[in-house]
Design a protein that fits this description.
Chain A contains six helices and five strands. By secondary structure, chain A is α+β, with helices and mostly antiparallel strands. By secondary structure, chain B is an alpha+beta fold. Chain B is built from twelve helices and 13 strands. Chain B has a five-stranded antiparallel beta sheet, with helices on both faces. In chain B, helix 11 packs antiparallel against helix 12. The chains are: A alpha+beta, B alpha+beta. At the A-B interface, strand 4 of A face strand 1, helix 2 and helix 6 of B.
Chain lengths: 171, 292
């Protein structure tokens, strides 16, 4: 079936089998191999991309379900040769070891920062609680996200506040 | 690589269109909403629908609102929306308790309330929460809508009252005064199914001491209709004393039929059902009194 969607701001059209999963469409059809394919069971979270601005596990989304919608992958974090602050945070705080979980972690943490520009350590850990770092490098992923939050606070206006602050949600 | 068996795909933009597509394709068609239960089962070939009807465009079913004396939850509301809904929390904090421990934050962005209860996994948390609060489900077909109770909705593991050519559109929860509710779950790790879980919704009389009505829901322990009916009957109409709550919790544990599996032996799950029922009842009562 024909599918048309926006990926990282560009319209793409392709002919795909209905059972093709979004993660494989991104990697194998579009060559966007930054999104990793891990557990295949929506447990590990390395395949996290944004669908209509929300992080989702792309191993559990059919390509056709993204018809007419906007997808954002890790390749879109860097803009005009400048790393996103979350990427810079992973560099500065050694947020990766083997790097396999990194794309999903960064997409989830970027979404967190957009909703909550100053997340606590607990809020960061909650945001990545559906993702697995098999190097167990969570401590530095949390630090990398805090680095990005502090860096963004000093260089730009905060993003839009969510209607309900996450600390109220987890109270 | 885990890949589902081949299927045909159609997308519905209205409820009527979804029903028409289901009728056209018969019993081999399945609705797909968030897909976070169905797609993994299709990958494992535990289910092989021939046609998937995608209902993600039915955004008019994504509401959570108060309508008179009911809290109305559209079937397409995502888990995160229920987690963060102020009106749901105001009347039924049990839903926030439960949603905090359903799957993980990324899955909650996608999974839907309606999809979860239609999946009807025996360990599904919202099914127990809806049993506790006395919810009813609105099911639509080409001949109109019908409303079934939570107990009537669940017809066994992975089986609901939603028939071929029908779609769950709404869950209704009656809002009552002096009510408190809570949910307690033990899981092995974030995102896992419950080893056992219990939800309670308690309505107190004006004196703040007498239990006017109570609902107790249990997940993952083989409780009939996700409900601890014997325990409810022990409490209804009497004072909310520690002794009576403890006796009801024991009845909840004795009244369920947990199975031993990789999540734990049956006697441990029965123990959890008792302990979690007691905790949920106490928290629900504290909330009904405005103390929590």
């Amino acid at each position: 079936m024909q599918v048309t969607m926006t990926v990282n701001g560009s319209a793409v059209t392709a002919d795909v089998e209905p059972r093709l999963l979004l993660v494989h469409f991104l990697r194998d059809h579009l060559g966007l191999t930054g999104t990793h394919w891990g557990c295949d069971t929506s447990n590990c979270g390395t395949c996290v991309v944004w669908l209509e601005g929300e992080p989702v596990k792309s191993c559990t989304v059919l390509t056709l379900m993204a018809e007419g919608r906007a997808v954002r992958t890790v390749e879109d974090l860097e803009q005009d040769g400048r790393l996103d602050p979350i990427q810079e945070g992973f560099v500065q705080e050694h947020g990766l070891q083997c790097g396999f979980c990194t794309p999903g972690m960064m997409m989830a943490c970027r979404a967190l920062l957009d909703r909550n520009p100053d997340p606590s350590e607990d809020e960061i850990r909650l945001a990545i609680s559906g993702q697995i770092c098999r190097c167990t490098g969570y401590e530095n992923i949390v630090r990398a996200t805090r680095w990005a939050a502090e860096h963004e606070a000093s260089t730009s206006e905060p993003e839009n506040e969510p209607e309900l602050a996450p600390e109220e949600v987890t109270a | 690589m885990q890949v589902p068996a081949p299927f045909d795909y159609a997308r519905a933009t209205t409820v009527d269109e979804a029903i028409a597509l289901l009728e056209r394709h018969g019993s081999e068609a399945r609705l797909i909403a968030g897909g976070h239960s169905l797609i993994p089962m299709m990958k494992l070939r535990l289910t092989r629908p021939e046609v998937l009807v995608d209902i993600n465009d039915l955004t008019d079913l994504a509401y959570i609102r108060q309508d008179g004396d009911d809290l109305c939850i559209g079937a397409m509301a995502r888990h995160r929306e229920l987690l963060e809904s102020p009106v749901a929390f105001e009347h039924f904090p049990i839903f926030r308790d439960a949603e905090q421990v359903i799957a993980d934050p990324v899955v909650r962005n996608r999974g839907t309330v309606g999809g979860s209860i239609c999946q009807a996994d025996p360990s599904e948390d919202l099914s127990a929460a809806f049993a506790a609060v006395g919810a009813s489900m609105v099911i639509r077909g080409s001949s109109g809508a019908r409303v079934v109770s939570s107990a009537g909705f669940h017809q066994g593991p992975y089986t609901t009252a939603v028939g071929d050519g029908e779609i769950l559109t709404e869950i209704r929860v009656p809002i009552r005064p002096r009510c408190g509710s809570a949910y307690e779950k033990v899981e092995r790790r974030v995102g896992d199914w419950a080893i056992a879980a219990a939800g309670a919704c308690v309505q107190l009389a004006d004196d703040g001491a007498t239990i006017t009505d109570v609902g107790i829901g249990l997940a993952a322990v083989g409780a009939e209709d996700f409900r601890a009916t014997a325990a409810e009957n022990l409490l209804r109409g009497g004072p909310a004393t520690w002794e009576r709550l403890a006796a009801a919790a024991v009845a909840a544990g004795e009244g369920c039929e947990p199975q031993s599996d990789q999540r734990g032996p049956a006697d441990y799950k029965r123990h959890l059902a008792e302990v979690l029922t007691a905790r949920a009842l106490h928290r629900a009562i504290d909330r009904a009194r405005g103390e929590a």
